[in-house]
């Protein structure tokens, strides 16, 4: 099972977005199961679950993990092909974001368009590399920083821009015939705050009442 896979086909995307089928994908991500085993978990008849599983299988979202005899019946054990799925902008090709329409380094929507292109391009590269049985050379850096002020944030971005631009100028071999182009995307955005867990929320309420 892959850790994550990208859905590029519009029909496969539509299938994965169905609430029941999304629930089945989540259940099968935890391990192989038959239609009968899943029926009790999702509250549907086995025949109905089997119908949804066949739709998921047609689009490569689940696959056969094995078979087992149960009485006079042979059960098919299915598993998800990935632990998680990402829908590529290619699934909405006619309206996918295009970062080249406008360039505004301080625009959150331009950042979103860049992120969508990143999903699309890396998804296509993964598909191509898998078909060619080759390893895809990529790199990612993820981190967090707390700025004391807006001025510090602006200074950080200025230094980051200068540093990355200097590296690009240093290593860009525009005329190298054997070279390969690489895209570089650097992003800075506020961290999304996670909602408090019920336990922490209850603890905060008790603390407020005690004061």
Assembly classification: single chain
Structural class estimated from helices and strands: alpha+beta
Spatial strand sequence of the major β-sheet: 1-4
Shape: extended
Average pLDDT, to the nearest integer?
A: 90
Give the strand content: 5-15%
Number of DSSP helices?
7
Rg value: 23 Å
Encode the helix/strand succession as letters.
EHHHHEEEHHH
Helix % is: 40-55%
Report how far apart the termini are: 51 Å
Number of separate strands: 4
Low-pLDDT parts are none
The major pleated sheet works out as: 2 strands, parallel
What descriptive keywords fit this protein?
211 residues; alpha+beta; two-stranded parallel sheet; two-stranded antiparallel sheet
Provide an overview of this structure.
The mean pLDDT is 90. The chain has helices at residues 10-17, 19-29, 35-42, 46-58, 108-131, 150-171, 198-210; strands at residues 2-7, 62-70, 73-80, 82-87. The chain has 211 residues and is of the alpha+beta class.
Short description:
This protein has 211 residues and is α+β, with helices and mostly antiparallel strands. Helix content is 47%, strand content 14%. Strand 2 (62-70) and strand 3 form a beta hairpin.
Please describe the topology of this protein.
Elements (H helix, E strand, L loop, with lengths): L1 E6 L2 H8 L1 H11 L5 H8 L3 H13 L3 E9 L2 E8 L1 E6 L20 H24 L18 H22 L26 H13 L1
Parallel strand pairs: 1-4
Antiparallel strand pairs: 2-3
Helix pairs in contact: 2-4, 3-4
């Amino acid at each position: 099972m892959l850790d994550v896979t990208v859905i590029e086909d519009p029909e496969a995307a539509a299938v994965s977005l169905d609430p029941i089928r999304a629930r089945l994908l989540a259940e099968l991500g935890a391990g192989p199961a038959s239609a009968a085993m899943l029926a009790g978990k999702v509250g549907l008849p086995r025949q109905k679950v089997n119908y949804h599983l066949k739709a998921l299988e047609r689009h490569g979202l689940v696959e056969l993990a094995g078979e087992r005899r149960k009485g006079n019946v042979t059960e098919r054990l299915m598993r998800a092909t990935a632990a998680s799925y990402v829908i590529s902008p290619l699934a909405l090709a006619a309206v996918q974001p295009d970062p080249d329409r406008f360039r505004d380094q301080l625009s959150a929507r331009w950042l979103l368009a860049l992120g969508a292109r990143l999903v699309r391009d890396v998804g296509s590269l993964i598909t191509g590399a898998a078909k060619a049985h080759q390893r895809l050379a990529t790199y990612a850096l993820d981190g967090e920083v707390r700025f004391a002020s807006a001025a510090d944030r602006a200074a950080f971005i200025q230094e980051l821009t200068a540093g990355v631009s200097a590296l690009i100028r240093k290593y860009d071999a525009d005329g190298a015939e054997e070279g390969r182009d690489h895209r570089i995307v650097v992003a800075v955005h506020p961290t999304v705050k996670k909602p408090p867990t019920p336990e922490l929320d209850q603890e905060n309420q008790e603390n407020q009442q005690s004061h």
